[in-house]
Design goal:
The complex is a heterodimer of chains A (about 350) and B (about 950). By secondary structure, chain A is α+β, with helices and mostly antiparallel strands. Chain A is built from 11 helices and 12 strands. Chain A has a 4-stranded mixed beta sheet with strand order 10-1-12-11. Chain A has a two-stranded antiparallel ribbon with strand order 2-5. The longest helix of chain A has 16 residues. The radius of gyration of chain A is 21 Å and the shape is globular. Chain B has 4 domains: about 60 residues, no CATH class; about 375 residues, Rossmann fold, CATH 3.40.50; about 240 residues, Dimethylsulfoxide Reductase, domain 2, CATH 3.40.228.10; about 130 residues, Barwin-like endoglucanases, CATH 2.40.40.20. In chain B, β20, α25 and β21 form a beta-alpha-beta unit. The chains are: A alpha+beta (about 350), B alpha/beta (about 950). The interface between A and B is large, with 130 and 125 residues.
Chain lengths: ~350, ~950
């Protein structure tokens, strides 16, 4: 695969007419994993070992700071440096962890009294999709953490696509979704080395790689992706980034309160985050210090780039307005008075979808 | 840079696999449970090849108010993965009979006929040899719907005369402090209320874990100007989206609240009109006895329940009105000037308003500096927070945590005092969150009164009910309000044995081995003047609990039914304790459930119930939702599982057959009710067969009763999934909300009191902060005070707080394989990082947690958010997930607070799900030990 010269990060590829994007408002995320479960129920069922996708969580939510999923993914490399593709570490099956089987049968029916208890079978687990849940950092009472949902960023400059040696991976022209032709994938996993977000999984049964497909069969029917539509926190916006009237464009470009994760990776992610506020830290005498941030700003900058301070300042200024009884367009946008306003053109109720398979029984 | 495009043809071909995955044959309505309150999230299930392929939130909640975001989508990860429980390995698919010792884990599969025939014989033996009260249904919310508890109660309790242990004590959700103050525990927050709140205190609640479908309303209100403050020992999950987090030492919240009250009074920030009108703070107290000044004090033969204020206009005492909160021409005094009142016996006594007594005590004991030393919150913070509460619409997210502290009642009373002083209930944006069953499926209740099927019979029952209501109203003319008259009727019916529900405290004390523990002096409040037994004896001998002490102390229970319950997991005080004390007394233990629980594993029979998607069902409607939500039986029941209706009607037939063979036709229970066994099956069913017919009858009758629009039936529910209630109904729990719910208008509870000035159902007919019951005076708890947690479990360095987990509603989903992957797949103990390091304990390491009660082993999870000295073991793990099946329930002594046996005093009396002792589990003392390598 020949290296190509990177285009500047601001230019969208000519071939993409429109780009599907998402904004996650982290100030509403409660780490409940409903998005993760919604995704898993549809695409990577855990109950069929023969499918090989049982351990995968294409969408996952992690507590930050933390080692995340796969473990220590932020240290694995990939993406672009000075416009050049970087091949980093390929996360191993152990780095992902999870995919446990449990000894239900033995515990319930094995005649062992209370000698056997329900636990993962085999080797003692040491990692999983949400292993460091609610651990965070700092020290009580000024400890801190927040939740970060992650899925494939469907990047504008997808390193995985460039790295793919077989031409299996491509960026779909009509909506910018990054997909893989599984019949062409040979499982060489250069994509997983190239992806700096380490959201590409290896299917050990089928010998191919897999990742989030942005629920394209749903999008094609006008239905929002499962992670977004099932999110009880009402925090996932879906739509076209270049729809100037849409909330995503407003949050990313107009208000600039939604930022990409690790912009320095150079792939131009199309999943954006409204960065987390945090309670005022307490002084030694227990009084709050409104001037300082509980989550160190350097840490947030390391995640969301140098613009994070401005984004937080904008959020605080607009929140101060509503606290003073004034209106704020940004706050109205983030409040989301109508659930369906989250989903751009993808507001269809999936229960109304008719497809060829129906009625054949 | 790569931007590869591909021919559309190839896109289509390769993607077919994924498109094919997202297909289905049919769609049906579903909902899961109400147990996370208000719950009842609407889902669609997508069926393929006769199985549920997946489920997804329906997103069908209507937008009720223009300026309040709609409630969609309503759901959570448990709901999204429910079908993994439906088909999971924990699912029970066939009737199982124990082989060998109880709990050994050896089973034989038996036929329904054999199983139910044998169960029927045990029931008949118990009835004949010991009386029907030895048949106990441990009442729980079960599946959170209308299908499991109802048929169980109909057969075992109503028709046979068995005993149901009160669900609200069983699940420890009764809120004694609310009850002491308001005469009811359950005023819930209403729809559309949240956006009006300007200060939200998340205080003893972890909504980030426990209110997943509703948490968004906190975030939305915050964006619209509401300040969010989280108060808890640990900087846990619910602090992350707060504006401020203040750490309070476990169980010291009363000190914090009282210091805030002190600031509010001293700075004259209290709502004087509200205080005088809504509360007992203007009522006069005798300074010699500490008791309210009563009519019986000042008049020969006067009433014991007439109270007084000092009228500033007249310059003398004035009667406090009881049927209204309005004072009329009286201007009650709050100040503490010395005033003397002549008594009937000719002597004179000093009196003072409760307010002045309170003020003096707050000044003496609860200055912010004093309170800060107790609770650890900075005094300046206490003052500034108090000022905010006094000047903003304030709501407290209170949850179900406080009531699980030994002195939770005191903390609740102190927190309600804070709200009461500042006028923060009964108006939009203010108040507390609680839970309440409420308006519901009236047809289900009507079915109990019908003698034959059909609408003609329904109309007859309704006419009869109207006549009874008219009679009650006529009598109620003497009562102070319809709410109070209805509570009175409930109390009387309960004592006559007509509700079948009993407070389980006596069951635990007499039959489950709790007597010794509850008498342990070290684990109780040191201010108890007498032994626990002396108090209990006084309560029983005074007749305060007459009619509800069942099973009789002399007649141990013989048959135990668990229907969706899991006593060996949930019972505070332990699996080991029950196995030792209760299990040997039982001839038969039956678990009806769709999953294998620890209790099921220790039962004689495990009978497979069908699950949510396999039977038509409704989920308990609540005042906050105002709609009936339907769950369809769209999937074939797994294996041989049956709906609880089918199980209990078949059991009725077996009992009828068995009774005939024994020539047992009728018997009388201890309350004097005669039970006939011939025709038992018909009494149970009125001739209804399958569960569809039953549900159709319920819906049609509910419409006939005027709660739903005409024309509603199972068919319409099946199509639309939901139906709006046209009115909230007249159940006592709905009356307790004391509010008029009108479509399109946000509302909150307690508005009948604050707006219509209707009295509270308390002794004084006001929100009552002063309790002059002799036990309360003896305990120094006539007013809310702070008391230290007793050292329950012994003198050990760590305080174990707990709380509902994130991953399961109770234990329903705790073994769902998919959800087990969303954490570490096994129980854990959360411990402060530095505490652990000091003991050389590493993250993930298994430790021994122990105290004077028992021990359990558990892996540790380190967190800097946990307060030093605190450890957390979230509730819900099934004991069989722990090594040796010992879990936190094995170190909890399961203490109850002795004062909650008090009675013979106004509202301190039992009626279902209200005033009664409930065991506590928060802040048990433990030690944590590194295991030898």
């Amino acid at each position: 695969m020949p290296r190509r010269k990177a285009t500047p990060a601001v230019t969208r590829p000519r071939t993409t007419h429109s780009q599907i994007a998402m904004v996650f408002d982290l100030n509403k995320c409660i780490g409940c994993q409903t998005c993760s479960v919604a995704c898993k129920m549809l695409w990577t069922r855990d109950d069929d070992k023969r499918d090989g996708s049982d351990y995968m969580w294409w969408c996952s939510v992690n507590t930050m700071p933390g080692r995340g999923y796969p473990r220590d993914w932020e240290q694995m490399g990939g993406g672009y440096r000075d416009g050049r593709l970087q091949l980093g570490k390929r996360p191993t099956r152990d780095d992902f962890g999870g995919g446990w089987d449990f000894n239900y049968e033995e515990v319930f029916y094995g005649g062992k009294g209370t000698d056997a208890h329900l636990a993962p079978i085999g080797k003692e687990p040491t990692w999983g999709p949400n292993w460091d849940e609610d651990q965070g950092a700092g020290a009580w009472p000024n400890s801190y953490f927040f939740y970060l949902p992650r899925l494939c960023n469907h990047c504008t400059h997808p390193a995985c696509v460039e790295a793919c040696p077989t031409g299996a991976m491509y960026k779909r022209p009509e909506d910018g979704i990054v997909l893989r032709d599984e019949s062409r994938c040979e499982g060489r996993q250069r994509c997983a080395k190239a992806c700096p977000y380490k959201k590409i999984f290896f299917n050990h049964v089928r010998g191919i790689s897999q990742q989030c497909i942005m629920c394209f069969p749903r999008l094609e029917q006008g239905v929002a992706p499962a992670c977004a539509r099932q999110c009880p926190g009402r925090l996932v916006f879906v739509g076209y980034l270049d729809d100037a009237d849409g909330p995503i464009h407003q949050l990313v470009h107009k208000w600039q309160v939604a930022l990409p994760l690790h912009p320095e990776y150079g792939t131009g992610p199309n999943v954006f985050y409204v960065p987390p506020l945090s309670p005022a830290p307490l002084n030694a005498d227990g009084s709050p210090d409104d001037r300082r941030s509980r989550i160190p700003i350097q840490y947030l900058e390391s995640l969301f780039g140098p613009k994070v301070s401005d984004a937080l300042a904008t959020l605080k200024a607009e929140m101060a307005k509503t606290k003073a009884g004034r209106k704020s367009k940004l706050m109205d946008l983030l409040t989301v008075y109508h659930w369906n306003d989250l989903f751009g053109p993808f507001t269809r109720d999936p229960a109304t979808v008719k497809h060829a398979a129906m009625g054949r029984k | 840079m790569a931007s590869r495009t591909t021919a559309p043809a190839r896109t289509a071909r390769e993607a077919d696999g994924y498109r094919e995955k997202w297909t289905w044959d049919s769609v049906a309505w579903a909902t899961h449970c109400v147990d996370c309150y208000p719950g009842s999230c609407m889902y669609h299930i997508y069926l393929k090849d006769g199985k549920v392929a997946f489920e997804e939130v329906a997103g069908s909640a209507p937008k009720l108010f223009d300026d309040v975001p709609d409630k969609n989508p309503m759901g959570c990860q448990k709901g999204a993965a429910w079908s993994r429980t439906l088909y999971g390995e924990e699912r029970v698919r066939h009737p199982l009979r124990r082989v060998g010792e109880r709990g050994a884990g050896n089973w034989e599969q038996v036929s329904w006929d054999d199983a139910l025939g044998d169960v029927a014989e045990h029931i008949l033996d118990a009835i004949e040899q010991s009386g029907p009260e030895t048949i106990v249904h441990e009442m729980t919310p079960a599946e959170g719907g209308t299908m499991s508890v109802w048929p169980t109660q109909r057969l075992l309790v109503n028709l046979l005369g068995g005993v149901a242990t009160d669900v609200n004590a069983v699940i420890n959700d009764f809120q004694p402090g609310h009850y002491i103050t308001w005469g009811k525990f359950n005023p819930a927050s209403g729809a559309g209320n949240e956006m009006r709140t300007k200060l939200r205190l998340i205080w003893h609640c972890n909504p980030v874990y426990t209110q997943i479908p509703n948490y968004h309303s906190v975030a939305e209100a915050r964006y619209q100007g509401c300040e969010v403050v989280h108060i808890a020992p640990d900087a846990g999950p619910s602090s992350i989206h707060a504006d401020y987090f203040y750490s309070v030492r476990p169980g010291t919240d009363a000190a914090l609240a009282l210091a805030m009250c002190r600031t509010i009074i001293e700075e004259h920030l209290f709502d004087e009109r509200f205080v005088k009108e809504q509360t007992d703070l203007p009522l006069l107290v005798r300074l010699d006895t500490g008791r309210f000044l009563r009519e019986s004090d000042v008049e020969e033969g006067g009433s014991d329940e007439q109270f007084y204020a000092w009228d500033l206009v007249k310059g003398g005492i004035a009667r406090a009105p009881k049927s209204t909160l309005r004072w009329g021409k009286v201007t009650p005094a709050l100040d503490g000037r010395r005033r003397m009142v002549p008594l009937a016996d000719g002597t004179r006594v000093d009196v003072a308003p409760v307010f002045s007594v309170l003020r003096a005590r707050l000044n003496r004991n609860y200055t912010p500096d004093q309170a800060s030393k107790i609770c650890g919150v900075n005094p300046g913070v206490i003052r500034s927070l108090a000022r905010k509460v006094a000047t903003r619409a304030t709501a407290i997210y209170m949850g179900m945590n406080l009531c699980k502290y030994y002195h939770g009642d005191l903390m609740q009373r102190a927190m309600l005092l804070l709200l009461g002083l500042t006028g923060n209930w009964g108006r939009l944006g203010a108040g507390i969150s609680s839970w309440s069953p409420g308006s519901g499926l009236e047809g289900q209740g009507l079915f109990s009164q019908k003698q034959r099927l059909g609408l003609a019979e329904t109309r007859r029952v309704l006419v009869m009910r109207d006549q009874l209501q008219a009679m009650a109203d006529a009598q109620g003319a003497n009562s102070d309000s319809r709410e109070i008259a209805t509570i009175d009727a409930m109390v009387n019916a309960t004592r006559a044995g007509l509700t079948g529900m009993v407070p389980p405290a006596f069951f635990w004390y007499y039959h489950c081995g709790y007597r010794e523990r509850w008498n342990n002096k070290q684990w109780n409040d040191p201010q108890m003047r007498r032994t626990f037994d002396e108090y209990l004896t006084e309560a029983v001998e005074s007749g305060w609990w007459n009619g509800v002490i069942k099973p009789d102390p002399a007649k141990p229970p013989r048959v135990l039914f668990e229907v969706g319950g899991n006593m060996l997991r949930r019972q505070r005080g332990g699996r080991s304790h029950l196995l030792k004390h209760l299990w040997p007394k039982l001839d038969l233990i039956v678990s009806v459930d769709w999953r294998m629980t620890t209790t099921g594993r220790f039962s004689d029979y495990v009978l497979p119930a069908s699950q949510h998607y396999e039977k038509p069902n409704f989920h308990m409607a609540s005042a906050a939702l105002l709609e009936l939500k339907f769950s369809d039986g769209a999937a074939e029941p797994e294996g041989e599982s049956l709906s609880e209706w089918d199980i209990f009607r078949r059991l009725a037939q077996k009992i009828e057959d068995g009774a005939k063979a024994r020539k047992l036709t009728e018997y009388t229970d201890s309350a004097g009710r005669v039970h006939r066994l011939e025709n038992l099956y018909h009494q149970m069913t009125l001739g209804i067969g399958g569960v569809d017919e039953l549900v159709d009858e319920w819906v049609k009758d509910t419409a006939e009763a005027g709660m739903l629009k005409r024309g509603q039936s199972l068919k319409t529910m099946r199509k639309k999934g939901r139906a709006e209630f046209t009115r909230v109904g007249e159940s006592v729990y709905t009356l307790n909300q004391a509010t008029d719910a009108r479509p399109g208008k946000p509302y909150t509870s307690l508005q009948w009191h604050t707006e219509k000035r209707l009295p509270y159902p308390t002794l004084t007919r006001r929100a009552q902060f002063y309790i002059d019951h002799s036990w309360f005076l003896e305990a120094g708890e006539e007013l809310p005070v702070h008391k230290d947690n007793p050292k329950m479990g012994g003198d050990h360095p760590f305080v174990m707080t707990s709380g509902h987990n994130r991953w399961s509603i109770h234990s329903m989903n705790i073994t769902n394989r998919m959800l087990l992957q969303t954490h570490r797949g096994r129980p854990h103990l959360v411990m402060n990082t530095r505490d652990a390091r000091r003991r050389r304990i590493e993250d993930g390491e298994e430790v021994r947690v122990f105290n004077d009660v028992g021990e359990f082993m558990v892996p540790v999870k380190l967190s800097p958010s946990v307060m030093p000295g605190q450890v957390i073991c979230y509730n819900g793990w099934d004991p069989y997930q722990f090594r040796d099946w010992h879990g936190p329930m094995d170190v909890e002594p399961g203490m109850v607070k002795w004062l909650h046996f008090a009675g013979g005093y106004g509202h301190l009396r039992y009626w279902p799900i209200q005033w009664q002792p409930t065991p506590v589990d928060r802040a048990v003392r433990v030690d944590v030990q590194k295991l030898p390598v």
